[in-house]
Amino acid sequence: MTAPKVFIFAPSDPSGESHRKLEQSGCEVLLGKASWHTPQGDREDEIVAMARDADAMCGTSIRSTPITRRIMESADKLRIVGKYTIGCDDVDVEAATQMGILVTHSPTESNWGGVAEGMIGNMLCLLKKIRERDSYLKSGGEWRKEEFTGTYVGSRASDGYPGLTIGLIGLGRHGGRVAQLLRPWRVRLLATDPYIPPSRFLEHDAQPVDLETLLRESDVVSVHCYLSKETYHLLGEPQFRLMKPTAIFLNQARGQVVDEQALVKALQENWIAGAALDVFEVEPLPMDSPLRTMGDKVLLSPHMISSNVGSGLGPGVRWTTESVLKALRGEVPDNVFNPEVIPAWKERFGGRSLI
Known about the structure:
alpha/beta, Rossmann fold, 355 residues, 2 domains, elongated
């Protein structure tokens, strides 16, 4: 039997442990270049050549050259495209589904849980004016200033203070954990998500609303959805104009969910009070981006909100390696991103082991 070929298009395992595991299972491993993870360049021809005849592909984000239909068509026996990351926006999932190919991702709790915790931290940093207080005192400020008064987040029974209204765009793993973390604060929680059942809103004590209602009524708007054709530029000028001038906006999902030029305008013209951003339309964030010049009005992070001890790509590498091995054994792995393909996939590959 010919060894099944696994093409790792964007390697992210310096230890080589996952590569050895695949080889010990009888696979031929072909490594792409780590540089393909960068945003620059288009290397589709080169990737097509390396992907030819692959039975499986996997890797981390490949920003320079997404995994296109053409790349997948170069491997007519391809069973699976596995991602070390949560997001699959760099894979043509629609084409994969039409071709009967599984796409898996790695929603490890160490990562999505870290995103939720980071969102809470960013929200509090903006609302409590933590940076402003710190820099004022360190720069020689004498003592308290009224302008550094923070915002109380939760409701208070003692004086009837209702607390803030927090709107979550997406109530999946990220948004759901945020809702759990906010429960003791007794805030009013709004959420919009067309892909989850009503029971999940009840579970998290979140009021289901449409996007326009969420934007109009929320004091904090936080994005927790995937990037897809439906969510690309979901938030633009019309949406930011709906928000309260006192509201803050947080995005830790994907940069292209937001029309960044519209967000800059909203901040410059005070349609909203501030923003905390971990993701951007173009990454790395260009040096001439207006967002870099807005001082304490924005809180910026270099796409690291999920980077905590015990998180990162390591758990996803291990998870994806197991998914690849399962698919090569003719078994449906966990965390299939396009579950609608499973019946067709089983018909093509189910029970047919290559290892």
